[in-house]
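Assess this:
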Amino acid sequence: MAFKRIQLGLIHVAVAMTLVPINSTLNRVMIKELAISATLVAILASLPYLFSPIQVAIGGFSDRHPLLGRRRTPYIVIGLALCFIGLLLSPQAAYLLPLNFWGGVGLGLLAFGAWGMGYNFATVSYLSLASELSGERDRGRTIAVMWFMMITSIIVTAIALSQMVDPYTAEALVRAFWIVALAALALGLLGLVGLEPRLSPSFVSSSNEEYSWGRLIRFLLNNRQAKLFFFYLAILLAAILGQDILLEPFGAEAFGMSVRATTRITSVWGACVLTALVVAGALERRMDKRSVARAGAWGTLAGFLLIALSGLLASQSVFYTGVILLGVGTGLATVSNLSLMLDMTTPEMIGLFMGAWGMSNAVSRLVGTVLGGAVRDLVIQISRVPLTGYLVVFILEALMVAASLVLLPRIDVGAFRRQAEVPSLIERVAAATD
């Protein structure tokens, strides 16, 4: 199983690597160097998450309809290919926008849309595969390995990008995106080799049993714990992930950092997340998962407040302290909440539930990114002070983390499973809706 965890980690690494250039470098170039509206950048960056409901469809469909004898691998391949295409097209769209606005918007929709579809295809599929291969007892360890590898790859990718775009030119940026895209595709395909066992013919034939999609979705919505966990994840992740598009432009605005310096913010954050992942893995053996999740939320809340304070004080040391706390809190929250997420599934519908939680993740990115960019622009228009827009967003994100802390004590995996238990899950759903 140890080798399979590494393979799963390689797939996770591949998808994450395609995200780093877009969220850690391209957004800063578009907002600062190209002077493109942060609202438009936020809309393009969050466009992929508009497709998040497809995760429920992909997860449920792959549960019942294997391709070439496998339930997850074909969908992961499709996802990796779309991420590759989207990453290559995204800088072309950015540089076209100032020259041909509508042409740039069209290409941007294609680029970010392709990446988003790929993200949704790949994520629900490899998380479902991770849950199936690891089993309940080993899920925490599998998550820790996958996210350790992912954060390590984010750090390495961010450092490599900072070197490849120094000095910054359009040609250097496009070349860097090509290198990252090819490396990500190769690692993802390598991780898939021999990973998922071929299903038996009897399973393939029985898995084609049809049932009502409407009934299954109503079952998901009628499970009180499922709804609660969905909204909890959405609020928390909207705050944690919503800062991606603004943290580096904030560093440039508040402290005059160069493209190379702001790109390295991601590596500092990533190193802290990496350290916290190791700590969280150890804590989960001694503490309740919700306690670890609570500690992570408090860390991120303190991080946001310090980042906002750093702008008022014009202090880079306070800023980096906030980034460190944000990274530590994110790491603690990641392991605990993803372990909770994998626990809140049923064997009959792993793909469907993973699709629902993946959709919650994507919705949170959508809300956090668009809200962050729009609020930043609105506040700047009102106050005429660019820095104020960033500070309001970071304080708003701290309040969202506080709201998640209110919901967390109500999460109960046991109650979720009691509500989901059935003699036959499909029969219960049918009985409840007929």
